[in-house]
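> @MW can you paste both from yesterday?
MW: sure, first one:
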Amino acid sequence: MSKFICATLIATALILPSANNYSPAFAGTCASKCGPRPIQFSPGQRIQVKVVNRTPRVLIIQKPSSTNPIPLQPGQELQINQGDGTEPNVSLLFWDDTGLPLKANISKLNFGTLGVELRPNWYAPGDRAIYILDDGRIEVL
């Protein structure tokens, strides 16, 4: 019996120090480390797009098949209605006539307004369009 107790004590003494070197693993959601949530509106929702030119140059904005190209002066804001939700996959194109790249920073300003800030970009080719999908997701292309 004493051999059994000695063996148990020795095994315990060998196991306990090695258990202290391990830290417990905590499971968590990606919400704390995934970055910001993607911008999305309700499918079929009427959306206004507010575009702001934050570059020192004139930019051109166009909603294909429904508007002619619209020049946007530096610092100028433009509001464009997306439609009534029956218009499938709406795009908003933008470009600089000099060919310099742009960066589109998007934000959800309120329940029905998408904010688009167009800024200079140092990396070509840059952003060229905002795409509003039927399911309410927003993509920058």
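MW: second:
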Amino acid sequence: MSSQEGVLMQLGTMLQLLLIIALPKFALYLALGFPVVFLVIEIFETRFPVKIRSWVKKQVITC
């Protein structure tokens, strides 16, 4: 993986795909929400304090 941000985006995409599979009735709406996943990751990377970002990355990426 080239960056931690890329790992977070891949995890977000996988979660979104699992939701699409689990909730087929809402699949279209969830599929249209893919840009939201990337937007949330970008906001997380640019606006959250470093202390919170490092803790979340440590919890999510190292699992």
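> thanks! The two ends are 15 Å apart (CA to CA).
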